[in-house]
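Could someone model FNR with this protein?
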Amino acid sequence: MNLFADLHDRAKELLEPAIHDYYAGGAADEFALADNENSFARLALLPRMLRGGPPPEPRVDLPGAPGAAPVLVAPTAFHRLAHPEGELATARAAAATGTVLISSMAATTAVDEVVAAAREVRSDAAVWFQLYLQPDPEVTARLVERAESAGCTALVVTVDSPVFGDHVRDRRNGFHDLPPGYEAANMRDLPGGPPGGTRDIEMSPEISWRHLEVLRATTALPVLLKGILHPDDAHLAVAQGVDGIIVSNHGGRQLDAAPAPIDVLPRITRAIGGTLPLLLDGGVRRGTDVVTALALGAEAVGIGRPVLWGLAADGEKGVREVLDRIGADVVRAMALCGVRGPDDLTANLVVPRGFGGL
Ligand code: FNR
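Reply:
Sure, complex below.
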């Protein structure tokens, strides 16, 4: 059970099985996928009592998103497969709840339309653009231009995908690409692609810090790296001058042997905490998970699959329900822990479950 189990059940009833599997699945044996949720169950919170004060106000300042909710919409591909309004529905729901939307490069709606939908609801809605660095820097540069002219306020560069993870469920279901009638709309009219058509997103082990340097030279937008797990890479990211890190194992969809992000967050916080904003995603399903991540050094967290379940279950209303539920649950969890907001959350509130502190 988690906060979104009913929405997941509804989504599963409505979606074609192969599409449900594409969203739900992980790589290989799905160890990392399972561990992402289990890792939070291995931790407990030591609440403080009788502290007085107003109800908690969980707002945070993030790059290109002042006063945002501490739960972001993580970038996920292909929203039109969940609901006909696709990314537009997600964007409206995120904007209405003051939630940062990280719009995927692999979206089925172009980023300018996504940002426009969010800004119709709220003129200062923050949308970040997620991209995979492409071997041809011209292609990356064109994508960045698109995100900039759309009005995105930050870039999220996903670095954990030198190749595709081994998605066993998709292989079994023969789900290899978007079905006819859908397109990865951001990939239209790019250098090397067919005129008027879309080019493929390339994943390549050639991609290096050098490509990142080239990207950073072409944009003034803040750049966050998504998919860092090793503290040494966190140090390198600081040395490169990036604006934030999202500790993530891609929802268990890339390296199946990767640890759960919450299990490595303390090491990364010890290595570089305080020098730049740390975010985390993977397995966050309750307000207490958010509180745990913030206590261990994250500024904010992302949720991926729950948004897809809300979208499939009930479009914009369903995504709104997901974001409202987790928002209220964060306030409840903070109140139960006796904290007034993110600034009060410190690592000494978190203990391993089953450890009596003797
Ligand atoms: C993803 N994720 C992802 N990440 C990214 O950087 N670009 C992308 O296009 C996608 N696409 C994508 C599709 C689907 C169906 C899923 C489930 C995930 C990873 C995503 O941003 C995030 O890291 C995880 O989803 C977080 O884990 P939870 O909340 O789903 O457990």
